[in-house]
UniProtKB/TrEMBL annotation:
Plays an important role in cellulose degradation. Shows hydrolytic activity against several glycosidic compounds. The active site is at 376 (nucleophile). InterPro entries: GH (IPR017853), GH_1_N_CS (IPR033132), Glyco_hydro_1 (IPR001360), Glyco_hydro_1_AS (IPR018120). Coiled coil: none annotated. Belongs to the glycosyl hydrolase 1 family. PANTHER family: GLYCOSYL HYDROLASE (PTHR10353), LP05116P (PTHR10353:SF36). This is beta-glucosidase. It comes from Thelephora terrestris. It catalyses: Hydrolysis of terminal, non-reducing beta-D-glucosyl residues with release of beta-D-glucose. One of its GO terms (molecular function) is cellobiose glucosidase activity. GO terms for biological process: cellulose catabolic process.
């Protein structure tokens, strides 16, 4: 029997969450409102009509969450900081809330005391409501860039002595397209009459995207200039993006797959890692794609120490679609012969396909030539929420999803030479799944929302065992040809 291949000793694995999806306690300790607070309260925005007022009650139960992480043996935890807890009104001249700082500070201390590396995201979609009301939030370049940088500064100052892994913005594609294009996420702007009476889906998403890129880049510039020299951490952006493969071998569908990648990933990654927009986007959008000034380009290009990768699935791509946000490409999971690509999840957009996961890791590494941190990857079992708890925790489909993707991850490292430094399963807990409310469960831990009791699912135990087995012994195989010098000058973080 061949010896089990091992992960590099410094590899970080664990689970991820986001503030608004788990914290609840939206009106305590001076927290200001976020754009999600009222958005999810208005009729028709969430599938079950529920909101984030309680969620998994993690603002109160945070010690239990950390105990759970410890029980799983996680080496790292990816969480997000709530901007309106830190600066309730959001702006650069608005007061900082000491209670907000204290909460995350204690949280980080407790993680470290438990041997868990904190991986902090500054923005996971919970913009202070006041900034939206005051000046249009992400639509206002001059204001939002400055306010985001100031918020980032407060976080670096308060937590950077202990947090050495920073993510600026989570999935700016979702912020733009879902928040300002389709209008299904806060702030719910769209030209779709069912969703919103104001907004302009043909321009706003592209504008918002350029402002998120710039805000990210300016926060990174600040970190590198003023904090990195003494604090020594790494900072980058996390992008969502799924592998795209041609539906068949026709030339138009081959280009369709590349077009899908350009619109989903290249939109952000090409500017940030390569310093230009994808040609195809320029062609399609013309002057609706906002240009950066040459000064801005120097800040944007190279503004991420790593590629933060959130990925869930793989799409078969057909040319001739009608959705501009997908680059006029249609997605399907049904192959030409009628078979399915993988196992269907509870969400229509998600099927298993480990081969695609490995292909995407290779595609990104080859194209952007930067170390990859997998910051989210996960699966929602079909109809899990209708099951009794003892059945829900036996989540075979989720185990198979993680087994397939973890093996693919290992192969990408040990066989393909991709420099991958972390894997975070989404999510530590079932939680508030945005527009799905609580109907879709992504957790490796079941949450009974009546009692807030947590029940580890088999998949949580599986992920934990899988990583422990591949990290425990000294026989690790380092990634063969790391083409990028190790970050942090080889300094171990714990
Ligand atoms: C992540 O986004 C989020 O970071 C996380 O907060 C969330 O809980 C998790 O996924 C699970 O959903 O059918 O056109 O609406 C994942 C990226 C991009 C996946 C948008 C779903 C919807 C496609 N998402 N996509 S559509």
């Amino acid at each position: 029997m061949p010896a089990t291949k091992h992960l590099p000793k410094t590899f970080l694995w664990g689970f991820a969450t986001a503030a608004f999806q788990i914290e609840g306690s939206t009106d305590v300790d001076g927290r200001g409102k976020s754009i999600w607070d009222d958005f999810c309260r208005s009729p028709g925005t969430t599938l079950d009509g529920k909101n984030g007022d309680v969620a998994t009650d993690s603002y109160k139960r945070w010690k239990d969450d950390i105990a759970l992480l410890r029980q799983y043996g996680a080496k790292a935890y990816r969480f997000s900081i709530s901007w309106p807890r830190i600066i309730p009104l959001g702006g650069r001249n608005d007061p900082v809330n000491p209670k907000g700082i204290e909460f995350y500070s204690d949280f980080i201390d407790e993680l470290i005391a438990n041997g868990i590396v904190p991986f902090a995201t500054l923005y996971h979609w919970d913009l202070p409501q006041n900034l939206h009301d005051r000046y249009g939030g992400w639509l206002n370049k001059d204001e939002i860039t400055k306010d985001f940088v100031r918020y980032s500064r407060v976080c670096f100052e308060s937590f950077g002595d202990r947090v050495k892994h920073w993510i600026t913005i989570n999935e700016p594609w979702c912020v733009s397209v879902l928040g300002y294009g389709r209008g299904v996420f806060a702030p719910g702007r769209s030209m779709c009459p069912a969703k919103s009476s104001d907004g302009d889906s043909s321009t706003e998403p592209w504008i918002v995207a350029s402002h998120t890129i710039l805000s990210h880049a300016l926060a990174v510039q600040l970190y590198r200039n003023e904090f990195k020299p003494t604090q020594g951490g790494v900072i980058g952006i996390t992008l969502n993006g799924d592998m795209a493969i041609p539906y068949d071998d026709s030339p138009e569908n081959s280009s369709a797959a590349q077009h899908a990648l350009d619109f989903a990933i290249g939109w952000y990654a090409d500017p940030i890692y390569l310093g230009y927009y994808p040609e195809y986007m320029k062609q399609v959008l013309g002057d609706r794609l906002p240009e950066f000034t040459s000064e801005e380009w120097t800040v944007v290009k190279g503004s991420s120490d790593f590629y933060g990768m959130n990925t869930y699935t793989t799409n078969l791509c057909k040319a001739g679609g009608h959705d501009e946000f997908q680059g006029f490409v249609d997605y399907t999971f049904t192959r030409p012969d009628g078979t399915q690509l993988g196992t269907q999840a509870h969400c229509a957009w998600l099927q298993t396909h480990p081969t695609g996961f490995r292909q995407l890791l290779n595609y990104l590494y080859k194209k952007y030539k930067t170390p990859i941190y997998v910051t989210e990857n996960g699966f929602a079992v079909m109809n899990e929420t209708k099951m009794p708890i003892d059945q829900a925790v036996n989540d075979t489909d989720r185990i198979e999803y993680f087994r397939g993707n973890c093996e693919a991850l290992l192969a990408a490292i040990t066989e393909d030479g991709v420099d991958i430094r972390s894997y975070f399963a989404w999510s530590l807990l079932d939680n508030f799944e945005w527009a799905d409310g609580y109907t879709t469960r992504f957790g490796v831990t079941y949450v009974d929302y009546e009692t807030q009791k947590r029940y580890p699912k088999e998949s949580g135990k599986f992920v934990s065992k899988w990583f422990m087995e591949r990290l425990s012994s000294g026989k690790e195989i380092l990634s063969p040809t790391p083409s990028v010098a190790p970050l942090l000058n080889g300094r171990q973080l714990h």
